[in-house]
Amino acid sequence: MKIRTAVTAAAAxxxxxxxxxxxxxxxxxxxxPGRDAMMLACTQCHSPGKMILADxxxxxxxxxxxxxxxxxxxxxxxxLADLVKYLQDNFATDK
Length: 95
Ligand code: HEC
Known about the structure:
By secondary structure, this protein is mainly α. It contains 5 helices and no strands. It has helices spanning 2-23, 35-41, 49-53, 58-71, 80-91. Helix 4 crosses helix 5. The protein is elongated.
């Protein structure tokens, strides 16, 4: 019984790892303006998978970017518009 539990736990771990890999794959993050800024500024405290899991409207995304800048995300001013648009285009629930 104990061994079986351990095997199940190990399988679950591997499965989670695979999911993270898929979430972080190229396809989820198309190479458009704003992508590099996101990968640079938004993956320092949490993984880019956060963008995929987030359940946010366009308006929420704009707010989140300013919120994250307030927390210390290093977004250059000239990248700001592209970054917000990138997040809205790819991850907004009302896109
Ligand atoms: C200085 C650290 C830091 C940086 C840099 C950062 N974040 Fe966050 N982020 C956090 C923390 C802390 C939370 C709240 C705790 C959590 O959900 O993990 C959070 C939560 C989030 C959430 C979930 C919010 C929700 O309401 O569902 C999203 C989406 C997000 N961040 C996106 C971004 C984006 C986009 C950037 C780049 C502009 C970014 N983060 C950069 C620290 C950071």
